[in-house]
């Protein structure tokens, strides 16, 4: 224990501006490479300040945030955390009162970094995390120690962020307030929010085949997780489900989240002045509508769900139906824009998930909440939706490439097996013939002797 503490002390003493600048350069390069991978995707055309004080006698290490601000400047803080220094301080001031009585309290070994610095390192991890040692190297902390520290901090931070910036947004933004603020959907003003599912690539799980197939997405030909997110017309997310396997149908995830949808779509007394003459109003007079995509066909039988009209076999859509689908896509694009912003901000949500499944919801929900903060500062744009389309296209290309490799491997195995069988057959045939010919020669010799 003493040796580990001395090692951390020596690491903190050697930290200086030059070292920090050299270390952060690698993170920034990784981010540029990650963005470059998405930017080069060609989308095919679509058809159809607070001081924490003394920690039980342990002195805190020099401020990591101050090192970054001194070495990289305000732009460096923005590149590391997605927030400018003033924005970072604003979020920290809101979060700190809730953290004060939960972090670094009780018995046991205390963290020697100030809570503000751990928060700073956590945001850096959410943005740049591909491997723990990559981010830990920047802060001169052993990877295992860094991982345990961030995970322990996330156990406290993630629920706080989700409650402050996601759940409270659901209570705050009623449809009446949305209409009065001028942010209602253009073509479907009687819809409160749009809902969709996002998929993230993950490692192939272990277990028997029935357990493994729960995580396989036939759409992407990859193993991963699905999460449903509901987004208001102003771009703020108000709900995020727990993750499920990639094979789960979107409509099934919606049904599992019935408690939220029933509560969120219910009309309140404050919405009495909002006119509702929209679709399915007669069937659901006490509910607002929700906008969904074509993966939710038939959901209107259970909820006031507005989904696109599908063309029948040999029956193309009429001009009226096509116009309806275009208007629905125009309003529903807000959730696609949210996914694009989420994945462009936080590398942990866009890169392949390589960590334990049990911690996935902690990190994903924290990223959703922090994306809400970012959207309040910088509203969503159409470019965000393009980023999401490129991300999804890239996943499909990875899945198609993986499937092609597996197909070639299977065909190569089958060809080799056929060759082995033919060789074995020829050997057995030749051996049988030689035995038979030898027997005939023995018989002829016996006849000659007689």
Automatic annotation (TrEMBL):
Domain DDE Tnp4 intervals: 203-372
Cofactor names: a divalent metal cation
Key words, A-Z: Metal-binding
InterPro entries referenced in this protein's UniProt entry, alphabetically: HARBI1_dom (IPR027806)
The UniProt record lists the keyword Phosphoprotein: no
Tagged with keyword Nucleotidyltransferase: no
One of the record's GO molecular function terms: metal ion binding
A Pfam family annotated for this UniProt entry: DDE_Tnp_4
Name of the featured protein: DDE Tnp4 domain-containing protein
């Amino acid at each position: 224990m003493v040796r580990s503490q001395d090692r951390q002390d020596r690491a903190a003493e050697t930290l200086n501006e030059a070292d920090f600048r050299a270390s952060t350069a690698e993170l920034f390069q990784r981010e540029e490479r990650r963005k470059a991978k998405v930017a080069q995707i060609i989308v095919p055309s679509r058809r159809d300040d607070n001081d924490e004080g003394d920690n039980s006698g342990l002195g805190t290490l020099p401020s990591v945030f101050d090192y970054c601000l001194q070495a990289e400047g305000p732009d460096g803080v923005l590149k590391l955390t997605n927030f400018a220094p003033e924005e970072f301080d604003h979020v920290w001031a809101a979060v700190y009162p809730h953290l004060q009585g939960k972090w670094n309290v009780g018995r046991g070994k205390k963290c020697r970094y100030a809570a503000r610095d751990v928060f700073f390192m956590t945001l850096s991890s959410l943005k740049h995390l591909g491997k723990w040692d990559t981010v830990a190297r920047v802060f001169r902390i052993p990877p295992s120690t860094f991982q345990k520290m961030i995970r322990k901090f996330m156990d406290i931070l993630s629920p706080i962020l989700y409650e402050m910036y996601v759940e409270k947004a659901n209570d705050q933004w009623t449809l009446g307030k949305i209409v009065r603020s001028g942010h209602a959907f253009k073509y479907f003003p009687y819809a409160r929010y749009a809902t969709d599912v996002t998929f993230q690539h993950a490692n192939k799980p272990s277990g028997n085949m029935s357990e493994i197939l729960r995580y396989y997405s036939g759409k992407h030909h990859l193993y991963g997780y699905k999460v449903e997110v509901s987004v208001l017309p102003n771009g703020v997310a108000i709900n995020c489900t727990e993750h499920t396997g990639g094979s789960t149908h979107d409509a099934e995830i919606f049904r599992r989240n019935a408690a939220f949808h029933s509560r969120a779509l219910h009309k309140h007394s404050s919405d009495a002045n909002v006119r509702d003459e929209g679709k399915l109003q007669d069937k659901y007079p006490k509910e607002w509508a929700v906008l969904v995509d074509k993966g939710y066909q038939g959901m209107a039988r259970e909820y006031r769900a507005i989904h696109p009209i599908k063309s029948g076999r040999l029956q193309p859509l009429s001009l009226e139906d096509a116009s309806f689908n275009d208007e629905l896509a125009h309003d529903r694009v807000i959730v696609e824009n949210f996914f694009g912003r989420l994945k462009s901000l936080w590398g942990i949500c866009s890169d392949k998930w390589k960590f334990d499944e049990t911690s996935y919801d902690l990190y994903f929900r924290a990223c959703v909440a922090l994306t809400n903060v970012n959207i309040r500062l910088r509203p969503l744009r159409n470019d965000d939706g393009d980023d999401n389309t490129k991300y999804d296209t890239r996943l499909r290309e990875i899945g198609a490439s993986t499937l092609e490799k597996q197909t070639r491997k299977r065909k190569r195995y089958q060809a080799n097996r056929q060759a082995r069988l033919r060789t074995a057959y020829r050997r057995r045939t030749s051996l049988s013939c030689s035995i038979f010919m030898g027997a005939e020669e023995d018989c002829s010799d016996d006849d000659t002797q007689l």
